[in-house]
Design brief:
Length: 141
Protein backbone atom coordinates (compact mmCIF):
# COMPACT_ATOMS: atom_id res chain seq x y z
CA UNK A 1 0.00 0.00 0.00
CA UNK A 2 2.78 2.44 0.93
CA UNK A 3 4.62 1.72 -2.33
CA UNK A 4 1.51 2.48 -4.36
CA UNK A 5 0.84 5.70 -2.45
CA UNK A 6 4.43 6.87 -2.91
CA UNK A 7 4.35 6.05 -6.64
CA UNK A 8 0.99 7.81 -6.97
CA UNK A 9 2.35 10.97 -5.31
CA UNK A 10 5.43 10.97 -7.53
CA UNK A 11 3.30 10.41 -10.63
CA UNK A 12 0.93 13.27 -9.78
CA UNK A 13 3.81 15.69 -9.16
CA UNK A 14 5.50 14.66 -12.41
CA UNK A 15 2.24 14.79 -14.39
CA UNK A 16 1.49 18.30 -13.13
CA UNK A 17 4.98 19.44 -14.08
CA UNK A 18 4.77 18.02 -17.61
CA UNK A 19 1.23 19.32 -18.10
CA UNK A 20 2.33 22.86 -17.26
CA UNK A 21 5.48 22.50 -19.35
CA UNK A 22 3.52 21.22 -22.36
CA UNK A 23 0.98 24.01 -22.17
CA UNK A 24 3.69 26.69 -22.12
CA UNK A 25 2.31 28.37 -19.01
CA UNK A 26 5.71 29.90 -18.38
CA UNK A 27 9.02 30.11 -20.17
CA UNK A 28 9.46 27.29 -22.63
CA UNK A 29 12.65 25.31 -22.67
CA UNK A 30 13.86 24.73 -26.21
CA UNK A 31 16.12 22.19 -27.88
CA UNK A 32 16.90 20.28 -24.72
CA UNK A 33 17.24 16.51 -24.88
CA UNK A 34 16.35 14.25 -21.97
CA UNK A 35 20.07 13.71 -21.30
CA UNK A 36 20.69 17.47 -21.24
CA UNK A 37 17.75 17.97 -18.87
CA UNK A 38 19.19 15.29 -16.59
CA UNK A 39 22.54 17.07 -16.71
CA UNK A 40 20.92 20.38 -15.76
CA UNK A 41 19.00 18.80 -12.90
CA UNK A 42 22.13 17.15 -11.54
CA UNK A 43 24.05 20.44 -11.70
CA UNK A 44 21.19 22.03 -9.77
CA UNK A 45 21.02 19.17 -7.22
CA UNK A 46 24.80 19.04 -6.68
CA UNK A 47 24.86 22.81 -6.08
CA UNK A 48 27.70 24.24 -8.16
CA UNK A 49 29.69 21.13 -9.04
CA UNK A 50 32.96 21.17 -10.96
CA UNK A 51 33.29 19.64 -14.41
CA UNK A 52 35.02 16.66 -12.80
CA UNK A 53 32.27 16.13 -10.23
CA UNK A 54 29.65 16.09 -12.97
CA UNK A 55 31.68 13.65 -15.08
CA UNK A 56 32.17 11.43 -12.05
CA UNK A 57 28.47 11.51 -11.17
CA UNK A 58 27.47 10.34 -14.66
CA UNK A 59 30.49 8.05 -14.92
CA UNK A 60 31.52 9.63 -18.23
CA UNK A 61 34.84 10.94 -19.50
CA UNK A 62 35.94 14.51 -18.84
CA UNK A 63 35.82 15.39 -22.59
CA UNK A 64 32.27 13.99 -22.84
CA UNK A 65 31.19 16.04 -19.81
CA UNK A 66 32.89 19.15 -21.22
CA UNK A 67 31.09 18.70 -24.55
CA UNK A 68 27.69 18.44 -22.84
CA UNK A 69 28.42 21.37 -20.53
CA UNK A 70 29.56 23.63 -23.37
CA UNK A 71 26.36 22.89 -25.31
CA UNK A 72 24.25 23.87 -22.31
CA UNK A 73 26.30 27.02 -21.72
CA UNK A 74 25.81 27.99 -25.37
CA UNK A 75 22.04 27.42 -25.04
CA UNK A 76 21.98 29.67 -21.96
CA UNK A 77 21.02 27.10 -19.33
CA UNK A 78 24.38 26.85 -17.54
CA UNK A 79 27.11 29.25 -16.55
CA UNK A 80 30.61 28.52 -15.34
CA UNK A 81 32.82 30.49 -13.00
CA UNK A 82 36.36 30.13 -11.71
CA UNK A 83 37.41 29.10 -8.25
CA UNK A 84 38.84 32.18 -6.55
CA UNK A 85 42.00 30.38 -5.42
CA UNK A 86 42.63 27.94 -8.28
CA UNK A 87 41.76 29.56 -11.61
CA UNK A 88 42.01 26.17 -13.36
CA UNK A 89 38.88 24.94 -11.56
CA UNK A 90 35.45 25.86 -12.94
CA UNK A 91 32.16 25.52 -11.11
CA UNK A 92 28.84 25.10 -12.86
CA UNK A 93 25.56 26.79 -12.05
CA UNK A 94 22.15 26.68 -13.70
CA UNK A 95 20.82 29.99 -15.01
CA UNK A 96 17.55 31.79 -14.37
CA UNK A 97 16.46 30.59 -17.82
CA UNK A 98 16.56 27.02 -16.48
CA UNK A 99 15.07 27.91 -13.09
CA UNK A 100 12.09 29.68 -14.66
CA UNK A 101 11.22 26.39 -16.33
CA UNK A 102 12.22 24.11 -13.50
CA UNK A 103 10.09 25.86 -10.87
CA UNK A 104 6.81 25.16 -12.67
CA UNK A 105 5.64 22.91 -9.83
CA UNK A 106 6.40 25.34 -7.00
CA UNK A 107 2.87 26.79 -6.78
CA UNK A 108 1.35 23.33 -7.06
CA UNK A 109 3.50 22.00 -4.22
CA UNK A 110 2.88 25.11 -2.10
CA UNK A 111 -0.89 24.60 -2.53
CA UNK A 112 -0.60 20.94 -1.51
CA UNK A 113 1.35 21.89 1.63
CA UNK A 114 -1.10 24.68 2.46
CA UNK A 115 -4.07 22.31 2.14
CA UNK A 116 -2.24 19.68 4.17
CA UNK A 117 -1.69 22.18 6.98
CA UNK A 118 -5.42 22.95 7.01
CA UNK A 119 -6.35 19.27 7.32
CA UNK A 120 -3.72 18.12 9.82
CA UNK A 121 -2.86 19.03 13.36
CA UNK A 122 0.47 20.64 14.24
CA UNK A 123 1.61 17.32 15.73
CA UNK A 124 0.68 15.44 12.55
CA UNK A 125 2.58 17.98 10.45
CA UNK A 126 5.61 17.66 12.73
CA UNK A 127 5.52 13.85 12.39
CA UNK A 128 5.08 14.14 8.62
CA UNK A 129 8.11 16.42 8.44
CA UNK A 130 10.16 13.94 10.49
CA UNK A 131 9.05 11.12 8.19
CA UNK A 132 10.00 13.11 5.09
CA UNK A 133 13.45 13.80 6.56
CA UNK A 134 13.95 10.07 7.11
CA UNK A 135 12.68 9.30 3.61
CA UNK A 136 15.00 11.89 2.09
CA UNK A 137 17.98 10.51 4.00
CA UNK A 138 17.17 6.96 2.92
CA UNK A 139 16.75 8.02 -0.70
CA UNK A 140 20.24 9.54 -0.73
CA UNK A 141 22.00 6.44 0.67
Amino acid sequence: MLNELFEDLYMKLAMNFYKKAAHGQTVEIENISAVEMACLEVVYFLNKPTYSELAEFFNISQPNATYRINKLIKKGYLTKFNDEKDKRVYYLQVTDKFMDYYCLNDNYINNIISNLKKRCTAEEMEQFEKTLKILTKEAME
